[in-house]
Design goal:
Elements (H helix, E strand, L loop, with lengths): L2 E5 L4 H12 L3 E6 L8 H9 L4 E4 L5 H10 L3 E6 L6 H6 L1 H19 L5 E8 L23 H19 L3 E8 L1 E3 L18 H9 L6 E4 L11 E2 L1 E3 H16 L7 E6 L5 E2 H12 L5 E4 L8 E2 L4 H7 L7 H15 L3
Parallel strand pairs: 1-2, 1-4, 2-3, 4-5, 5-6, 6-11, 7-10, 8-13, 9-14
Antiparallel strand pairs: 9-12
Helix pairs in contact: 1-2, 1-8, 3-5, 5-6, 7-9, 7-11, 9-11
The structure holds uridine-diphosphate-N-acetylglucosamine (UD1).
C-alpha cells in the first residue's frame, strides 16, 4: 500500500481528497495545524471510508518539526500539498503572514522531499494565476499575469519554486493543479466546507443566507460585459476536483508524466454567471434566495472558465457533476450542519 502525505488534509479540498485516496487504496497521513479546520473532520472521513487516516498536528512553518516528520515517515511515496492560507482580502492586510505560511512551508516540505527516493508532488494552484485572461476558455498556455493579491502571488511564486526544484532534480516529479472555483460537499454530507466567520465565496454565502445566518446576498456588480451583467466563473464539484488529485498522483507514481513539471486546469469548462448560480440554487433547493445588487468587488475578474482538454486527454479526467449537482450537495451539507 503506497503511503501519501496530505498537508492541510482536514481542510475543504484536502478532506475530500483524503476520502478519494483511501477509496483508491492509498494509506494516508494527514498534517494539519487546525488553524482553519476542525479535528472532527477525521471522524467524517472515517464515517465515509471506514478508515481513520494517520493524523499529526503540525505547523509547517516550524522547520525542525517538518524535518522530524520526514525522518519518521521515510516511506512516503507522494505528497499532496494543500496547507495554505486562502483568503484574498486577508492576504492584502497580512501579506507577510501569507508569504510565511504559503511559501516558507512549501520550501521546507520541498527541502525534505528532494532527499526522498520517490518524490512525487501535487500542488494546489489556482486559476487566479491567469488574472483576466484574454481568451475564453482559458488554456494552460495563457500567460500568467501579475498577481492581484499576496494570496495570488503565493500561488505564482509557489509554482516557480516547484519548477526550479524540478530543474535541479530530474527524478523530482510535480504537477500543479490550477483549480477554478471549487464548491459542493461529499454526497454523504459528512464532510464539506466550513468557512470561519462571514464567507467570502459565493456558494457558502448563498447556502448560509438560505439557512438564515445571513440576511441577504450581495451580488457584486451587474454591469459587467457578460450576458446578464454578472461575473462568470467555472464552478467545479469538490469531489471531481479531489479525484483529479488522485489521478494526477497516479500519473506520477506510474511515470506517465511527459515532463517532471506539468500544469493542468481543473474545471468543468462551463462558465456560469452569479445569477445562474442563484437560479440553480433556487431550483435544486426549492428555496427562494434574498439577494440585492451591490457595487463591483475590487480585484474580481469579469470571466474565468477553463479549457479542460489537457486534463481530459492527458490525465484521462473529466468533471462529472453539473452545477446543479454541486449546489445541491452544498445545500445538503449546510442543512446538515445547521440541523435544518
Ligand atoms: C476567489 C478568489 C480566488 C480564489 C478563490 C478560491 C477573489 C478576488 N478571488 O475566487 O483568488 O482562488 O476564491 O475559492 O477573491 N460574489 C458575489 N457575492 C458574494 C461573493 C461572491 O456576488 O458574496 C461573486 C464574485 O463577485 C464572483 C463570484 O461570485 O463574481 C465568485 O466569487 P468567489 O466565490 O469569491 O470566487 P472568486 O472570486 O472567483
Amino acid at each position: 500500500m503506497k503511503k501519501v502525505l496530505v498537508t492541510g488534509g482536514l481542510g475543504f479540498i484536502g478532506s475530500h481528497t483524503v476520502v478519494e485516496l483511501q477509496n483508491e487504496g492509498f494509506e494516508v497521513v494527514i498534517i494539519d495545524d487546525l488553524s482553519n479546520s476542525s479535528i472532527d473532520v477525521l471522524d467524517g472521513i472515517e464515517a465515509i471510508t471506514g478508515k481513520k487516516p494517520i493524523f499529526e498536528k503540525l505547523d509547517l512553518r516550524e522547520k525542525s518539526d517538518v524535518e522530524q516528520f520526514f525522518k519518521k515517515h521515510s516511506t512516503i511515496s507522494g505528497v499532496i500539498h494543500f496547507a495554505a492560507s486562502k483568503a484574498v482580502g486577508e492576504s492584502v492586510e497580512k501579506p507577510l503572514h501569507y508569504y510565511e505560511n504559503n511559501i516558507n512551508a512549501l520550501v521546507y516540505v520541498l527541502k525534505e522531499m528532494i532527499g526522498l527516493e520517490d518524490s512525487n508532488f501535487i500542488f494546489s494552484s489556482s486559476c487566479t494565476v491567469y488574472g483576466q485572461a484574454e481568451k475564453m476558455p482559458i488554456t494552460e498556455n495563457a500567460p500568467v499575469q501579475p498577481a492581484e493579491s499576496p494570496y495570488g502571488n503565493t500561488k505564482q511564486i509557489g509554482e516557480e519554486i516547484i519548477q526550479d526544484t524540478c530543474k535541479i532534480k530530474s527524478d523530482f516529479n510535480a504537477i500543479a493543479l490550477r483549480y477554478f472555483n471549487p464548491i459542493g460537499a461529499h454526497s454523504s454530507a459528512k464532510i464539506g466546507e466550513l468557512p470561519i466567520g462571514v464567507p467570502q465565496n459565493l456558494v457558502p454565502f448563498i447556502t448560509q443566507t438560505a439557512a438564515g445566518l445571513r440576511d441577504s446576498l450581495s451580488v457584486f456588480g451587474n454591469d459587467y460585459p457578460t450576458p446578464d451583467g454578472t461575473c462568470v466563473r467555472d464552478y467545479i464539484h469538490v469531489v471531481d476536483l479531489a479525484k483529479a488529485h488522485v489521478i494526477a498522483l497516479e500519473r506520477l507514481l506510474e511515470n506517465k508524466n511527459s515532463s517532471n513539471f506539468e500544469t493542468f486546469n481543473v474545471g468543468t469548462g462551463v462558465g456560469s454567471s452569479v445569477l445562474e448560480v442563484i437560479q440553480s440554487f433556487e431550483k435544486v433547493s426549492g428555496e427562494s434566495l434574498t439577494y440585492k445588487f451591490a457595487p463591483r468587488r475590487e480585484g474580481d475578474v469579469i470571466s474565468a472558465y477553463a479549457n479542460t482538454e489537457k486534463a481530459n486527454n492527458s490525465l484521462g479526467w473529466t468533471a462529472k457533476s453539473t452545477l446543479d449537482d454541486a449546489i445541491l450537495s452544498a445545500w445538503k451539507w449546510e442543512k446538515k450542519i445547521r440541523n435544518l
